[in-house]
Design brief:
Layout: H1 3-6, H2 12-23, E1 28-32, H3 36-47, E2 52-56, E3 68-69, E4 81-85, H4 91-99, E5 108-110, E6 115-119, E7 122-125, E8 130-132, E9 138-142, E10 148-151, E11 156-158, E12 160-164, E13 169-172, E14 177-179, E15 182-185, E16 190-193, E17 198-200, E18 203-206, E19 211-214, E20 219-220, E21 224-227, E22 232-235, E23 240-241, E24 246-249, E25 254-257, E26 262-263, E27 268-271, E28 276-279, E29 284-285, E30 290-293, E31 298-301, E32 306-307, E33 312-314, H5 334-338, E34 341-344, E35 349-350, E36 355-356, E37 360-362, E38 367-368, E39 373-374, E40 377-378, E41 382-385, E42 390-394
Parallel strand pairs: 1-2, 1-4, 2-3, 4-5, 8-10, 9-12, 10-13, 11-14, 12-15, 13-16, 14-17, 15-18, 16-19, 17-20, 18-21, 19-22, 20-23, 21-24, 22-25, 23-26, 24-27, 25-28, 26-29, 27-30, 28-31, 29-32, 30-33, 31-34, 32-35, 33-36, 34-37, 35-38, 36-39, 37-40, 38-41
Antiparallel strand pairs: 6-7, 7-8, 41-42
C-alpha cells in the first residue's frame, strides 16, 4: 500500500489513539497541552480503558499542581510515563522531551513531528502534506493527511495562522496578504484566494467538504466567516467585504457575491441549511445590515443595488408556528420554506432602517422608502413606502448622484414607465 493511500480516510486523532494503544505498554499516559482537542483525546482513550493520568502544560496560568503539571515533572520518568503531544510542532518542545530521556514513538508520540523537508518556499511531511511557495512568516499546522497549500508569488503574512485537516487544498494568488488572520480548514475542502486579495483580522472557519473562492483584488475584513459542512462561498472581482460581525453559512448553503460589490461594516449574515444568497454585480450594502436566511429559503439581490444603513432581510419567520388543533407546523416545513424567499431586482434602492420580509419581490429601478416594512410584490420604477409598504409613486428613476439634473445619470437601462405586475 502506498504511504498516502494508507492515510486517506484516517483522522489524526484516530492516528494518535492507535499509536498510544500500540506503544504505551501499560505506562501512565500524559497529554502535553490542556485544551479542547486534548480533552477529546482523553475521552476517547478512556473508551479503550486507557486512563490519562494528568496533563502537562508550559503555561503557568494553567498549572494547578493537581491534574495540570509543569513539563519538568516528566524529567527522567520515561519508564513509567508515555507522553502524547497533540500540538503544533515546536522544536523546543521536542528538545525538552529528548532532554528528559524520552525516545520518539517508543516513549512519546508527537503527531506534528513528521517533517521530511522544510524551507521558506517548500514543506513536506511524512503524512503527505505539502506547502509549495513562499510561506515565510506564516504559521501552518497540519492536523491531518494529504493536504496541499500553494502560495504563488511573495505573499505577505503578519500574525497569521492556518490550521489544515485532511485532503484539503488551499491556493493563494500572488501578492495575497493576510494580517492578524486565523484560518481553520477541515477535511475535503477547497479554498482559492485570487491575486492581490487582503484578509485582515479575520477568523475563517471552513468545515468539511466546503468550497470557498475569493476573486481578484478582494478585500476582506470579516471578524468571523464560518462555512459549515458542504457549503459554498464565492466572491468575484474587486469586492470589499468589511463585515466586523459575522457571516455564518450552514450545511449545504451557498453564498455568492458578484463582481465589484461591497458589503460594509457590522453586517450580520446567518444562513440556514440548504439556503442561498446571491448578490449581483456592483451592489453596495452599507453598515449594520442583517440577513436572516432560514433553511431551504433564498435571497436574490440584483446588480447595481444600493442598501442604506440598518436594513434587515428575513427570508422566513425564524421561529416555528403550529396550528393548535392539528398540531402541525404551519410556517417552516421544508415544503413551505422552499416557496419562501426574497427577490430584489437590479438597481433597487432600499432606504435606511427598512425591513424586507419573505414573499417580497421588487422590480428593477424601484425605491423602498426609509423605515418601511415590506412584504409584497412591487413592480419596476416605483416608490414603495410605509408600514406595511404600499406604492406611493410610479414612473420614477433614481441616480446615485446627489442633486443630478440629468435623468441619463439614472442609466438608460433603468429609465422606464412602471409596468403593472400580476402576483403569481
Amino acid at each position: 500500500m502506498e504511504k498516502n493511500e494508507q492515510y486517506n480516510n484516517l483522522d489524526w486523532i484516530s492516528d494518535i489513539i492507535s499509536h498510544v494503544i500500540n506503544n504505551y505498554d501499560n505506562r501512565k499516559v500524559v497529554l502535553w497541552g490542556k485544551y479542547t482537542i486534548s480533552d477529546r483525546i482523553k475521552n476517547i482513550l478512556e473508551q479503550y480503558n486507557i486512563k490519562v493520568s494528568f496533563y502537562v502544560d508550559s503555561e503557568k496560568t494553567k498549572q494547578n499542581e493537581k491534574d495540570i503539571l509543569a513539563p519538568d515533572y516528566l524529567n527522567g520518568k520515561s519508564k513509567e510515563i508515555y507522553v502524547v503531544v497533540p500540538l503544533a510542532y515546536y522544536d523546543s518542545l521536542k528538545s525538552k522531551l529528548v532532554e528528559y530521556g524520552y525516545r520518539k514513538n517508543e516513549d512519546y508520540y508527537y503527531f506534528c513531528d513528521c517533517i521530511i523537508k522544510q524551507s521558506d518556499d517548500f514543506y513536506e511531511d511524512s503524512h503527505g502534506n505539502k506547502i509549495i511557495g513562499n510561506h515565510k512568516g506564516l504559521k501552518v499546522v497540519f492536523s491531518g493527511f494529504n493536504s496541499l497549500l500553494e502560495i504563488q508569488g511573495e505573499g505577505g503574512f503578519l500574525e497569521t495562522s492556518i490550521y489544515i485537516h485532511s485532503d484539503s487544498k488551499i491556493k493563494m494568488g500572488s501578492n495575497t496578504k493576510c494580517i492578524e488572520t486565523k484560518i481553520s480548514i477541515d477535511s475535503h475542502s477547497e479554498i482559492e484566494i485570487a491575486h492581490d486579495c487582503t484578509l485582515t483580522k479575520t477568523i475563517l472557519s471552513v468545515l468539511k467538504n466546503c468550497n470557498l473562492k475569493m476573486g481578484y483584488k478582494c478585500n476582506f475584513m470579516i471578524r468571523s466567516l464560518t462555512l459549515r459542512d458542504n457549503s459554498f462561498f464565492s466572491a468575484k472581482g474587486e469586492n470589499i467585504i468589511s463585515c466586523k460581525e459575522y457571516i455564518d453559512i450552514d450545511k449545504y448553503a451557498a453564498f455568492r457575491i458578484g463582481y465589484n460589490s461591497d458589503i460594509l461594516d457590522l453586517i450580520r449574515i446567518s444562513m440556514g441549511k440548504y439556503s442561498s444568497v446571491y448578490i449581483g454585480d456592483k451592489t453596495l450594502i452599507r453598515e449594520r445590515s442583517t440577513f436572516l436566511v432560514s433553511n431551504f429559503t433564498k435571497i436574490k439581490i440584483g446588480d447595481k443595488c444600493l442598501f442604506s444603513d440598518d436594513v434587515v432581510l428575513c427570508s422566513n419567520d425564524s421561529h416555528s408556528i403550529f396550528d393548535v388543533d392539528t398540531k402541525k407546523n404551519i410556517n417552516s416545513t421544508e415544503e413551505i420554506c422552499k416557496k419562501r424567499g426574497i427577490d430584489i431586482g437590479d438597481h433597487v434602492w432600499i432606504g435606511i432602517r427598512s425591513t424586507i420580509l419573505y414573499n417580497t419581490k421588487i422590480g428593477n429601478g424601484s425605491i423602498v422608502g426609509a423605515g418601511s416594512l415590506v412584504k409584497s410584490t412591487f413592480p419596476n420604477n416605483c416608490i414603495a413606502a410605509g408600514t406595511p409598504a404600499k406604492i406611493v409613486r410610479r414612473n420614477v428613476a433614481w441616480s446615485n448622484k446627489d442633486c443630478s439634473m440629468d435623468i441619463s445619470d439614472c442609466g438608460e437601462k433603468y429609465i422606464h414607465l412602471t409596468e403593472e405586475w400580476i402576483e403569481e
